[in-house]
Amino acid sequence: MDTPRHILLAGATGLTGEHLLDRLLDEPTVERVLAPSRRALAEHSRLDNPVGELSELLPQLTGPIDTAFCCLGTTIKKAGTQSGFRAVDLDLVVAFAQRARELGARHLLVVSALGADPQATVFYNRIKGEMEEALRAQAWPQLTLARPSLLLGERSDFRLGERLAAPFAQLLPGKWRGIEANRLAHALWRLALEDGQGVRVVESDELRRLGR
Q1: pLDDT attached to residue 154
Q2: How far is residue 121's CA from residue 113's CA, in Å, rounded to a whole number?
Q3: What is the bridge-based pairing of β-strands 67-70 and 47-48?
Q4: Taking the C-alpha atoms of 32, 37, 39 and 43 in order, what is their torsion angle to the nearest 10 degrees?
Q5: How far is Cα 164 from Cα 82, in angstroms, rounded to an integer?
Q6: 67-70 and 151-152 as β-strands: parallel, antiparallel, unpaired?
Q7: Which H/E stretch holds residue 198?
Q8: Per residue, what are the HEC states of 1-20?
Q9: Burial degree of 110 (CB within 10 A; 0-12, 13-18, 19+)
Q10: Which residues pair with 152 in a beta bridge?
Q11: What is the value of pTM for the model shown?
Q12: InterPro entries given for it (predicted)?
């Protein structure tokens, strides 16, 4: 495919999304980044930033879009309930993808998770797997599913479990080793530049390599 020029980004205020937004705005080939968010982002001449709830903003978004990135994600603690978690990590992701397709996007890149499996007994992994399954059913010309392990980096919201696990995650082998959010963002951009068709699943060890 041609170099992405018109980008739609969901999750621009999150750990990975912030790094990815900076990366996109540093690319001279990118003409427009459409990044809806709950809170206003720093102004930039090539940034279009509608502010509000994403579910309400989706119908108002305008194209053209050639490439879409989805960095949406929450935690059960933050969502409050399993159904609240599902509403963000499954329903909202699928709705975002559908809208991106309607706006002309041909390549969707989504941050999923290590161990995503619709048959998993672990709720988190099962929802991520169901999300991947739903996106596959949309029949994208090019769909990239990134499955990072534990994300490393300074978040705006404190997560005790991640803070405690981070030192150990960096010692694990292969795809289980933690990955820095800025490295993941760089990997996503490199993957967006690759020609391809169909579905590509990229595990965490390959994401770390691509993000160097």
Answers
A1: 62
A2: 15
A3: unpaired
A4: 0
A5: 23
A6: unpaired
A7: strand 198-203
A8: CCCCCEEEEECCCCHHHHHH
A9: buried
A10: 180
A11: 0.89
A12: NAD(P)-bd_dom (IPR016040), NAD(P)-bd_dom_sf (IPR036291)
Per domain, the residue ranges of the chain are: 6-210
Which residues does 172 contact at the CB level (< 8 Å), separation at least 6? 149, 178
pLDDT tens track of the chain, all 212 residues?
Answer: 568 899 999 999 999 999 999 999 999 999 999 999 999 999 999 999 999 999 999 999 999 999 999 999 998 888 999 999 999 999 999 999 999 999 999 999 999 999 999 999 999 999 999 999 999 999 999 999 999 998 886 645 544 444 444 454 554 545 657 889 999 999 999 999 998 899 999 999 999 999 98
Would you state the pLDDT for residue 100?
Answer: 98
For the chain, where are the alpha helices, taking DSSP H only? Answer: 15-25, 54-57, 76-79, 82-86, 93-102, 123-136, 160-169, 181-192, 204-210
| 156 vs 32: CA distance, rounded Å | 26
Question: How many Å apart are CA 35 and CA 48, to the nearest integer?
Answer: 6
Q: Which amino acid is at 71?
A: C
As a whole number of angstroms, the distance between CA 31 and CA 150 comes to 32
Burial class from Cβ neighbours inside 10 Å (0-12, 13-18, 19+) for residue 28 reads exposed
* DSSP bridge pairs for 111: 146
pLDDT of residue 200: 97
Task: Give the H or E element holding residue 203.
Answer: strand 198-203
